[in-house]
């Protein structure tokens, strides 16, 4: 064993880093990048519309798979159109 090895601890050493200041800086940069005209409500509304479009107009096999995933709790039921309302994933 060398002299360098003798000075190393044999037990784990507590180590912690406080990233609070860095996180505040990161958040400030994100908000600056989004700009003053960013509207989070409109952004969520646009995402919901996109998901509704994604799950609309499904062919029968896609609809069956979608209904199975909804019944399993993997996907939420989306949209109000008659093509997917009341469908049972077991039929």
Explain what the structure shows:
With 91 residues, this protein is an all-alpha fold. It contains four helices and no strands. The radius of gyration is 26 Å and the shape is elongated. The chain starts with a helix and ends in a 20-residue tail after the last helix.
What is the fold's blueprint, element by element?
Layout: H1 3-6, H2 20-34, H3 40-54, H4 60-71
Put the structure in a nutshell.
Helices cover 51% and strands 0% of the residues.
Estimated helix fraction: 40-55%
How many whole angstroms does the radius of gyration measure?
26 Å
Overall number of strands: 0
Overall shape: elongated
Mean pLDDT: 84
Any key phrases for this structure?
91 residues; mainly alpha; 51% helix; disordered C terminus
């Amino acid at each position: 064993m060398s002299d360098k090895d003798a000075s190393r601890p044999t037990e784990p050493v507590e180590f912690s880093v406080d990233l609070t200041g860095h996180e505040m800086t990161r958040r400030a940069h994100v908000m600056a990048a989004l700009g003053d005209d960013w509207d989070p409500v409109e952004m969520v509304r646009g995402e919901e519309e996109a998901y509704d479009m994604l799950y609309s107009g499904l062919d029968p096999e896609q609809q069956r798979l979608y209904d199975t995933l909804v019944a399993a709790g993997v996907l939420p039921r989306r949209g109000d159109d008659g093509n997917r309302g009341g469908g049972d994933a077991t039929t």
